Fold each of these.
Amino acid sequence: MSRLGRRQFTAGIGATLLASPLVRLLNGEAQAATPVAAKRLIVFFTPNGTVHKFWRPTGTETSFTFAAGSVLEPLNALRSKLLVCDGLDFVGADNHDPGMSHMLTGSGTASSTTAGMSIDQYVASKVGLGSRFKSLEFGVQTSLWGASKSTRMSYSAPGSFVSPEDVPLNAYQRLFGSTGDTSSSAAERLLRRRKSMLDVARTDLSALSAEVGAEEKLKLEQHLQALRQTEQALAAASTTACTPGQTPAVIDAKANANFPLVGKMQMDLLVNALACGMTRVASLQWSHTIAPQVFTWAGASEAHHELSHKVDSNTAGVASFVKCERWFAEQFAYLLNALQARPDLSSTTGGTMLDSTLVLWAKELGDSRLHTCRSVPFILAGGSGTPFRFGRYLRYTSTPHQKLLTSVCQGMGLTLDTFGDASRSTGPLSGLV
């Protein structure tokens, strides 16, 4: 390496290959791997618990499936992107309102480490300060009953609600302005910076190729091929990744029949906002506990909340509730697929937005027929750009869900040992990494 020193090489290419085994090899020393942290967090909420026998996967931890007709069947194609967490409890909380207020806060108080904030607001307070929006909250008919413990899941402090925007047109205008300005200049600058870094890396790799032996030359060629693929992805993304999409239609966002359309609009806006780098933390709240919507589009004739309390002997009522829950699973799949379809412009090594995003599907109840917060269903989604190992079904026994909230924070690169009330739980959830 007479003409290209290690320091010069590392300075030029380190931004793209810092964690690469090639750099460690050239430096001639073993270095600890840089911890992987997710870049974005999305909280996805749907109300009124579940019926466990129709929700639980079948199979083993690593070889599982969602049975035909089950709640999660629409997610079968995405199993490799999921961590299904079964057996998590809200310690000291039961019923609708306590479930809502405990779900994302872990019963934290003003004196707790997380200051009584919900996980979306706590993470945003740590990673969102450099973004245009520290966090974004989207809702789907969340304000029909005003703001209360029943209808709010996000807290900036104990008792301080963070209300979602549940009118898509209002959300669009806040994000992109009435003229549809997408802040494209910022996105273009980001693209130019990524491409410039790739140019430097390619030049240095080409120069280094003449200085190394055959084995190292092969590795360098593999890295060059990866850079070429990344350049192609960036070129394709430059015209599609940061666009506002179509202006949402003027509709009655409170009308029961418009519930599906409002939800799709909000998911599209959420993904666009993340793709444009407007925020790193977003949430989507579908209705609220005691949801009054009638899912006529799923064949239901009673309100979601009423269906959620049908006992096992009422097979028709339970079947109708399962159809509604399957519809929610379809919406979760839509969101994950939308993230999977977008290149991650913040990455210099390629990948999609789903690869580097943690998505948490949360509920406020376990078996809603019992009004308990035991074995509350949680699902994490994401990919290789996070520290978690996806594609698994994890069974726990009466484990405090604060451990999951702690793990999500740690997965976002934050350092803390407990989330919420430390007297109820400390430490992360085992088995995620």
Amino acid sequence: MIWYPYQQMKTMQPPIKIRRAEGVYLYPEDGSRLIDAVSSWWSTIHGYHNPVLDDAIRTQLDSFAHVMLGGLTHEPAERLSAKLQEWLPGDLNHCFFSDSGSVAVEVALKMALQYFMNQGDTQRTMVLALEHAYHGDTFKTMEVGDDEDYHFVLNAYGKSKYVVHIPTEIYALEQAFAAYHDQLNCMIVEPLLQGAGGMRMYDVSFLNRARQLCDQYGVLLIFDEVATGFGRTGNRFVADLVLPDILVLGKALTGGYIGHAVTVANEKVYQGFYSDDPAHALMHGPTFMGNALACSVALKSIALFEDQNYLEKIKKIESVTCRELSGFTDPRIKEVRIMGGCSCIEVLDEKTLEGFKEFAYERGVFLRPFLRYLYTMVPYVMEEDELVQVLQVMKDWFRH
């Protein structure tokens, strides 16, 4: 049997069985039709069954599905690396592929630690991270995360001596650097928008100050844009606003078709490994890194993003959402937050949202709130009337 994610298997409700998906719609076995307002965990930005992406998979499959990058290479991986080098800001030029966002963050953290070890500096063992951070469910990503609801298993080890968590406040940032700057190898953030930690949004001034302090004290800055990349914040990448040393991408990288991710390092980080000494090599190698099907569909996904002016689509999504949720309030609501292609209604008590998933299902919408957060991360191809329907269902919940 399937062991489902984030569920107590003994008490969980049966999942909705999907037989087909097209555009922004999921088609369950019962004959109903659901707007997917969370984009399959924020990844299917082009919708389902996109003919361009379908064709990319089929065309590559005629040659081969996968060839390992250990001692071998192939054109799809080379082309995707070259495209990202051209497309990403600054000197983010060196692509290390992996098979999931969590693993790609692990790679980034490993890069940051080894960067200093390769220079003979073994004192920089600490990471500066954010309160309410979520970077994945593998062990080091849980350690730099800060969410008891997901990572409580780490309580078995006690408080980590290698990670400091701070709020998104400049004073706290400056205090942390004053106290730990000579022990930090990196600072890692979900820039502007913290996803699974509660769709928390903060100002770019915090990132600008972080960049200044990292430069001042020689600390590497890592942006985890697995969720925020490809337009979700209204920016193509937050890295276009503030340039990190290491950028992590996943989820929408392949348009939601296949699990794939990339850790992109700048020239300084790459040169820290480029050596005649074999011990300075990055000893990491996921089996399916650079998967040819994933690289091929990622190239087409990027082309769609560029050619069809997705930033304008996202701006329209944000505008419609602001219009529909403007002035919306309820005594049970703590805050309404909107940024780019994300919106969130945070309630005071998570019991307020009990039964919402079923309520939305009956009204043709798939939304999956968690804890106190009722949120949307819609596909960018969603039409205005479909988006209005989603937002109306959210509002109706508080009025029924």
Amino acid sequence: MTPARFAVALPAGQWSTDPAVVNAHRWDRSGWQPAGRPIGVAFAREVTDVQAVLRAASAARVAVTVRGAGTGLAGGAAASAGSVVLDLSGMNRIRELSVTDAVAVVEPGVITADLDRAAREVGLCYAPDPASAAISTIGGNIATNAGGLSCAKYGVTRESVLGLDVVLADGERISTGRRTVKGVAGYDLTGLFVGSEGTLGVVVGATVRLRPAPRSTVTLAAFFDTFAEAAEAVTALGVAGIVVAVAELLDGRTVRAVDAATGSDLASAGEVFLLVQTDGSGAGEEADAVEGILAERARKVRRSVDEATAEALLAARRSALPALERLGRVLIEDIAVPRGRMAQAAARIVEIGAATGVDIFTLAHAADGNLHPIIVVDPVDPVDPVDPVDPVDPVDPVAPVDPADPAIPERAWHAAEQIFATALDLGGTVTGEHGVGVLKRRWLATELGSRSHDLQLRLRQVFDPAGILNPGRAI
């Protein structure tokens, strides 16, 4: 099928083969560089556009790469040679926001933070908070089952998705799930589509769960001499039955990088930084309990007394990744281990860095055992240590590996592979929230086991027998 056939299938102006447009849609934020180029970009505005593209692609056996904002970190939205890029970012309407049912009905291109903002205007909130919430789309979050800081309390994206509208590979539209809070009729196809990374169908609508907006929030920062002590403190919070909204941990190397980039003096308070938040009507009481547990183990504990103080405590976490970006090119890895084994994982990551000669800085969503070992390569010239960084994202800013840069050094990939092996050895997973995409496929079979992996491959064939949806990704 020639590119012109796609132009005919879509309304005027919604198909492009312009090299500049195609190049802008070839990569996601992982930096993975697929060979060759896609044949064009289809810009969907309505469900019928998605159906038209998939029918045409299915008839011609042309691969389709589905794309939202392209903020993924595993190569899932990087388009392969000869494929069609299906851009859903223009399907960006909030169709309904119900206070009575505490749900929203949205299109896949709605920006995550925009949905949360709209919900808060009526006293509700959208709980999932991926790192790229300010720019990522709901459809992309659903595709990767995105996580974030508040997962330990509110769950990942799957826990907030009640129902989906999906267009299958042949262009047929189906609906899954429900609008009700409870419902157990049939297999959970909704849960299956969440996290499928565009390999089973194209999400064109979602009914998502909203929650009451927290009435109050208390922020605490604690400083420790070692990562192990900080990890043990987080474990102690869980053992005490305290479900914190946020527990973010920065290792010593990251703390020093933040100090160098912002002019702060965090390291004088302690080698390792832990940020904890409680929220809801009992935020103050929970914060009292948290403070007591941390005070027994930390060198120092600071507590917010007002919004300005809380903002000051959050500044270090916001500045972490921008500070590392100033040191060189970053590879953002993503593993999760049982919470009680975080200290072991962090210690092994230090050993891996020393053995491979790679600079590794570790951040963690500590409340759920999700670690982000950040590999820094291609060091840059030192910068003015008092020139403040721009905290791009208030949560966990992510920056792409520039596809125009030289290839990632082999030692960095070797370090990454050892990090994945460490996660599995400790009973964890090679991805807690970024997805498998292209970069972690070789590790997936090891984690799943051969029988489970085979079943998932066969399941994929049921939904997409021609294999046109995001080939070479995820499973």
